[in-house]
Amino acid sequence: MKILIKGAGDLATGIAVRLHHCGYPILMTEIEEPLTVRRMVAFSRAVYEGEAVVEGITGVRVQTPEEIRKAQQEGKIPVLVDPHAAIRTTYQPDVLIDAILAKKNLGTEVTDAPFVIGVGPGFTAGEDCHCVIETKRGHTLGSVIFRGSAIPNTGVPGDVGGYTIERLLKSTSAGVMEPVASIGDLVETGEIVAYTGGEPVYAKMTGIVRGMLQQGVNVEKDLKIGDIDARCETSHCFTISDKARAIGGGVLEAVVQFERIYRKYAVIVLAAGKASRFGSNKLLADVQGKPLYRHMLDKLVGLGAFPRILVTGYEEIAEAAEAIGVCTVANHQPELGISHSLKLGLEKCKSIEPEVKGVLFCVCDQPGLSLSTMMELIRLAVNRPGMILASAHGNRTGNPVLWDREYFSELEKLSGDVGGRAVIEKHWEKCLCVETREEELRDIDRRSDLF
């Protein structure tokens, strides 16, 4: 799998190194003038020095696709000056990791790659990315979050050696950065360690300079320009930090898990019912400002890593699905019941991916269903071979349901308006109920359900 990492600072470098050791080809992007404090352990240094070696791995500045390929073939990590990561449209990574660490999302979308990872605060799993990695020091550092966000930025640096705010060095004036102390130097409280805009910057504590911006870079007032470490271990200045390794481990966990499900499962959406209880085509009804079927299509755009099939007899819905890359199958006989749609979907799925391991069956009338729940069912399937994974809330089960291929033949034998519930009841001991929120299971059957 090709992996694109936005950002090449020290934490992004920790991520890149762990992935590189596992054999993944990496491409990193950076801004034209990186402001990496711990630059001796960051591939961003390659932007202004041409290359940067971190723990034996070389990052090299590149400018063309040919140079990217050459660096990867030589076992190096290419670093491209590309502030908006526009290269993704031609590079087409399988995984995109936003490791800019801006404490907010600067433009990353869940559709930027088959699998998108947001590092730190500012991202919400299931909305602008598929998962988030926790970056706050403490018990959950490096955790992979598939629903929700990382702990919000508090503005208070993490505790290192018993110090928090005191260890930071900040510019006293806007202007050119002029270091006095070098990374690895021991400094005392009150000592001048740099000048910014001609004004001195004083150390607020005694310790070793672990990070410092490069000579000549332009800085704004109150920008972080360096940090001091009270532990006074020189080796810490030139090796990847414990924090970066933990975050890198979380990213590696997410990538490996994704690799195990990538194109090995499929998503089939049933949208061909007659909606007799509703009185008209309910899928066209306005729900929260858009047609009901659009709620499902909005989820499908974030599931581009899997074959996506929509079974419908409605031309408007089919055209909208095809516009986002979803394969459609026409069902012109809705009177044959839901079983007919099941068979049509499975038949198409097997023609696209003959070796598919399982299928997530969804219906198109659950506006509250989340992308996170759909991803959770697919992720769980890897460690639950031969099982039926059903969404549930309390004692109530519902859609979507993840079916192992072991049950395809039984689903294909159903007839009339009989769905997969009959197969679930027959194999109840093989059914795992996956708890989700009640509103996610709510479907629209009658007009009264809209209110």
Blueprint of the fold:
Blueprint: E1 3-6, H1 10-21, E2 26-30, H2 46-49, E3 51-54, E4 57-62, H3 65-73, E5 77-81, H4 88-91, E6 95-98, E7 115-119, E8 131-133, E9 144-145, E10 168-170, E11 175-179, E12 186-187, E13 192-196, E14 199-202, E15 207-212, E16 218-219, E17 224-229, H5 242-261, E18 265-271, E19 286-287, E20 290-291, H6 292-300, E21 308-312, H7 315-323, E22 327-330, H8 338-352, E23 358-363, H9 371-382, E24 388-393, E25 396-404, H10 408-412, H11 421-426, E26 431-435, H12 438-441
Parallel strand pairs: 1-2, 1-6, 2-5, 4-5, 6-7, 7-8, 18-21, 18-23, 21-22, 24-26
Antiparallel strand pairs: 3-4, 8-9, 10-17, 11-13, 11-16, 12-15, 13-14, 15-17, 19-20, 23-25, 24-25
Helix pairs in contact: 1-5
Query: What does the radius of gyration come to?
Result: 26 Å
Q: What's the helix count?
A: 12
Q: Could you estimate the helical fraction of the residues in percent?
A: 10-25%
Q: What fraction strand?
A: 25-35%
Report on the architecture of this protein.
- With 451 residues, this protein is α/β, with parallel strands linked by helices.
- Helices cover 24% and strands 26% of the residues.
- The protein has helices spanning 10-21, 46-49, 65-73, 88-91, 242-261, 292-300, 315-323, 338-352, 371-382, 408-412, 421-426, 438-441; strands spanning 3-6, 26-30, 51-54, 57-62, 77-81, 95-98, 115-119, 131-133, 144-145, 168-170, 175-179, 186-187, 192-196, 199-202, 207-212, 218-219, 224-229, 265-271, 286-287, 290-291, 308-312, 327-330, 358-363, 388-393, 396-404, 431-435.
- A nine-stranded mixed β-sheet has the order 3-4-5-2-1-6-7-8-9, sandwiched between helices. It has a seven-stranded mixed β-sheet with strand order 22-21-18-23-25-24-26, with helices on both faces.
- Strand 19 and strand 20 form a beta hairpin.
- Helix 1 packs across helix 5 (242-261).
- 44% of the residues are buried.
- The mean pLDDT is 94.
